[in-house]
Amino acid sequence: MVSAEEVARIIEAYPADRRFALAAMQDMQNEFNYVPEEGLEMLAEHLGCPIAQLFAMATFYKALSLTPKGKHIIKICNGTACHIRGAMNLVTGVKRELNIEPGETTEDGLFSVEIVNCVGSCALAPVMLVDGIYHNKLRVEQVPGIIDSYRAKDGEQHD
Amino acid sequence: MSELVKEQIKVLIDGKECYCEKGEYLYDVAKRNDIFIPVLCRSDAFEDHRACCRVCIVEVETRGKSKVVTSCVYPIEEECTVYTQSEKIKEERAVVMALLAHRAPDSDVIGGMAEGMGGTEGFARLTPLEAGKCILCGLCVQACDSLGTGAISTVLRGTEKRVDTPYSNPSKACIGCLSCANVCPTGEIVFEENEKTRTIWKREFELVYCEECGALMGTKEMLERAAAETGVETPKVCDACRKKAMADEMMHTYRFV
User: Is the pTM of this model over 0.90?
Assistant: First the structure.
């Protein structure tokens, strides 16, 4: 769980000014993989603004999540080029492998799946990103292998 | 001309000569001269307006050029001619109203206005949203913020955008003052009230009555908040009774004068 000290350390790195709200929330997202409720409360107090305003920002930006995201974030591009080259098949493939819909996180907290609109690599379509690593010209058959490689990496670290 | 009196600009609204100062909003000038412009998201309570319902559009003609503007936020800079009911405006306003009627199908206010301005005919291909009465004008949020309460805000975005408290939980900041409900143009924000309590945004508030005359004074939180801001004790009697008590005291004090 998130400790109050950690949150305080992130928040107090910024002056008590509303314009730093987004930066502080991004830091929380990076640190905890989500923006915790207690984090919003403490930030509201630090900045002296209503928590409702921070909540509005946190729900507005897709980069901020109010529920914990998985350790590995899978982004499937569904821009025009990727869409035409069968990005939605990748979504189905990932769904078959992980049993989650886009926007959801696996129960073990390892993977989150998101659909994004164009990652700027249309020539490589269809593209899937895992933790910022591009897997390009992907076929559905390759999806289980990629996911397994991340599972295996985590396994090694635990051993 | 004295320096205190600003230069007057002549505006011809629907053929009526009106005068205003530079920078005044067109809607205000029209209203002062008894010219009706329909609005939804405009409230006299605030200085800055939302300009998001687009119902208050009018046609402004300056130097032979005509344009459609939202009158509630259009500052008058020079002499112009305004048409609030031209064919073009009637047509565009009817479209705006028809779209709003699909956005907030449960609202009688909007339904009535749309009907009066040409109905929703020709929009059959649009499916009404299941969105109740809200048009997301944000007046309620503005009202709550302007009081310094900040209990509600718009959450999410795009088609999912709505007005709510953080996490949809009862807000600690809310004082149950009903400002949001009173300012809402469509009556979307509902509250329940019985003799003892008032419930709004899922939170229940205790009602306080005047100890003297028994009139409703508001919620406990409202009175405490007002008292804290003004630095006086939480009142136990209503305004009328307080004035009466003060008048009585004055009468006794100056009885012999």
Answer: no
- Is residue A47 within 8 A of residue A62, CB to CB? The reply is no
User: Would B94 be classed as within a structural domain?
Assistant: yes
Structural domain boundaries enclosing B53: 8-116
- Arithmetic mean of pLDDT, B58-73: 94
pLDDT digits (tens, 9 = 90+) for B101-120: 999 989 999 999 998 888 77
Amino acid at B16: K
Q: Are residues B23 and B100 in the same domain?
A: yes
Q: Quick one: closest CA in B to A53, which residue?
A: B153
Q: What is the pLDDT of residues B69-98, one digit of tens each?
A: 999 999 999 999 999 999 999 999 999 999
Residues B158 and B240 in one domain: yes
With CA atoms as reference, report the closest residue to A40 among A77, A73, A2.
Answer: A2
Q: Using CB atoms, which residue from B154, B156, B166 is nearest to A51?
A: B166
Same domain, B161 and B103: no
The CATH class of A72-158 is: alpha beta
**Given B82, B116, B150, which residue is the final one in a domain?**
B116
Name the amino acid, one letter, at B239: D
Q: Nearest CA to CA, how far is B175 from chain A (Å)?
A: 13
Q: For chain B, what is the domain count?
A: 2
Q: What is the mean pLDDT of residues A135-148?
A: 92
Among B239, B78, B221, CA closest to B151: B221
What is the greatest pairwise CA distance in chain A? 52
Cα nearest neighbour of B157 on chain A: A60
